[in-house]
Every structure is written in C-alpha cells, then in structure tokens.
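Design job #97: recover the sequence.
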C-alpha cells in the first residue's frame, strides 16, 4: 500500500455506538499497523465523543491519535477522493464526494459482521455505478470472509496482570473482589429484571457492573429507585450492582478482561468480548421478521460447534432467553454450573480465531489487488 497510503472512511451513526466503535478501531489499526493516512468522516460528533473523549465537537476538522476526524453532512464540500474509500455499513457516500471519485478509486462498502453461511459467497462481490465500482466486504468467522477486526497485540492486551487489574478497579473507585463479576451492556428491551433477579437469588455473591447508558432506568426500576447515578452501588440479596461511567474503548476492553461473564450487544462490544476470551452472552441488534435470531443462531452454531453438550445447551438456553423470554433462576444457574468448561472453551475459540488474518489486513490486501488490476491510463 506504499503507493496509495491515503484512505477515507465514512461513518454514519444510526443509533447506539456500534458504527462509530468499529470505524474508530479500524481507522486506528490502519494507521498504527499499516502506516496509512486515514481521514474518518463522522456525521455525529456528539455521539462519537462518548467513545472518543478527545473530540472537540466545536471543530469540523481535528487530528486525534494520528487520525483526521472530519464532521460531514449533506452540505459538506469535497475536493478530492482518496485512492481508497470505505463506506461503512451502507451509509451512502454523499453525492458531492461521489462526484470527486475516479474509475480507479477503490470503493469498499464494509458490511455488518455475520456468521451466516451466505456471507462466504457474497464476500468481495462488486457492482457498477456508472463508471465506478463498488466492492462489498463482509467480515466473518471463516477464512473465506473478510475476517474479524483485531489488533495484532489484542491477545497480549487482554491478558491483564494482577497489578493492572487492581489499577483498573482503583480508577473506578471500586475494590477488586474475588466474587463472580458480570458486566452488563445491552439494549433496553432485554429481560433485565429477570437477569438481576436470578443474580440476586444465586447462592454466591455476584457483582454486576453497568456502564451508564440507556438501561439505567430499567435497572433503577428493578431496585424500586427513581433513578441511578454513576458511582451508585445497590445491593439486593447476593447481588451488588455498581453503576460505572460510560467507558472509552480501552476502558471497556479492560472491563471485559476483568469480568467473569460479559453481556454484550451489537457488533463492537461483541467482537471485543470474543478477544477478551471470557464467557459472554450476545444480544444482536433487534430486526424485523426475527432476522436477529437467525444471526444469533448462526453465530452460536459456528462458535460453539465443538463445545461439550451440557455447556452448549446451557449457553443456547441463556442466549435464547435473553432475546425472547424472561430469564429464570434455573436458566442462570444451569449456565453458571458450566462456567469452568465455558471459560476454557471461550479461551480456546479466541485463540483459534486469532490465527486467521484480521479484517484490517484483509482490507489492505484486497485494495492492493484491486489497484493492481486497474489498467493504467
């Protein structure tokens, strides 16, 4: 990529944080590991600032950690397109930018991550739009897909030392403790009350860590509180729940590494839970016609294909309950009974997936191949 070191990435934040989370991590990896000059166009700096605290929302252009961050909307003017442009999650490039693109521009539509089998066949397909060619890049779990977003040192980063663990909890003004630790990051429609009730009824102490966000009202309702604030700790039976700040990406990665079970959602936190190597429960983004359930089961089938029978059954049961029903104490305790097996299995699967080529590297290799196949004028 030495002859084409400049890439543009467009990110439209539809809702939540998955879009910007993936785009920011990708931009950093392309810059840090592949020495690319990256411009990241973001349509909502206010939301992005929650993940990238250094953003100054009053500035339309700024450089943070070597990445040029540019605010964009339908009225933004553009002069030149980059040799490689990533349109994340079919966000639709602005017409003014399309007008600056050449037939030689490598235009990549980065799709959402899925474990469904059709992804292998659709990955790297292309279509024409006038003189331009649009390539469809599908992240996935098999070598014939676009791979998973993964920095080259992610495994080492997730293996926290005791001193790092202690420092993490100290930064949150919380003590490190030897009890079962659960992080909870989910969409508000999840059966949160059922999960908290099952935790409270468990016969051992459970500490649950909830980053401030859209589910705090539901959590407060469970405890009979009008509201909860950052720093609150509230106890019911064997459950101690801690409200922590909404963390930066690095901070959230540390939370995943420091907990025994992680409830995650969407795409960015889902991928990071995989690399943490800890048991996790995934809540896909809600879609019509139960499409999200199909995506969930496709992932469970590919990720837990070689898992022991009882551990696999308890994992499927808890995932299904988390999407579609009330979580019972029995479902939760059946899962916890398999935790030693699941801890080993998640670590094994993480290490296997880490042997595959990562998403950023595959994007660089793919774009280079496209460039070499373009005839010189």
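Job complete. Output follows.
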């Amino acid at each position: 990529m030495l002859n084409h070191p400049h890439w543009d990435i467009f990110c439209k934040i539809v809702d939540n944080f998955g879009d910007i989370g993936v785009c920011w991590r990708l931009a950093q990896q392309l810059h840090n590991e592949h020495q690319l000059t990256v411009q990241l166009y973001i349509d909502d700096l206010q939301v992005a600032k929650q993940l990238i605290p250094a953003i100054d929302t009053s500035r339309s252009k700024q450089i943070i950690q070597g990445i040029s961050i540019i605010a964009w909307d339908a009225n933004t003017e553009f002069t030149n397109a980059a040799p490689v442009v990533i349109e994340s999650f079919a966000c639709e490039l602005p017409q003014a930018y399309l007008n600056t693109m050449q037939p030689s521009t490598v235009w990549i539509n980065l799709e959402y991550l899925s474990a469904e089998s059709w992804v292998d066949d659709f990955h790297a397909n292309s279509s024409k739009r006038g003189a331009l060619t649009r390539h469809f890049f599908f992240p996935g779990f098999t070598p014939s897909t676009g791979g998973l977003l993964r920095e080259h040192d992610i495994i080492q980063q997730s293996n926290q030392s005791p001193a790092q663990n202690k420092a993490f909890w100290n930064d949150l003004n919380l003590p490190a403790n030897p009890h079962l630790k659960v992080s909870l990051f989910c969409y508000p429609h999840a059966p949160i009350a059922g999960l908290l009730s099952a935790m409270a009824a468990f016969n051992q102490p459970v500490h649950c860590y909830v980053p401030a966000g859209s589910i705090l009202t539901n959590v407060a309702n469970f405890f009979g509180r009008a509201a909860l604030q950052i720093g609150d700790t509230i106890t019911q039976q064997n459950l101690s729940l801690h409200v922590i700040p909404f963390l930066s990406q690095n901070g959230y990665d540390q939370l995943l590494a420091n907990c025994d079970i992680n409830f995650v959602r969407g795409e960015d936190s889902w991928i990071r839970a995989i690399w943490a190597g800890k048991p996790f429960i995934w809540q896909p983004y809600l879609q019509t016609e139960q499409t999200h359930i199909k995506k969930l089961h496709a992932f469970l089938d590919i990720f837990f294909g070689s898992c022991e029978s009882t551990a696999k059954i308890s994992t499927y049961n808890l995932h299904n309950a988390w999407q579609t029903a009330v979580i019972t104490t029995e479902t939760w305790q059946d899962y916890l009974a398999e935790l030693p097996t699941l801890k080993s299995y998640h670590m094994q699967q993480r290490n296997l997936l880490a042997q595959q080529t990562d998403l950023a590297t595959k994007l660089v290799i793919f774009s280079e191949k496209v460039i070499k196949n373009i005839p010189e004028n």
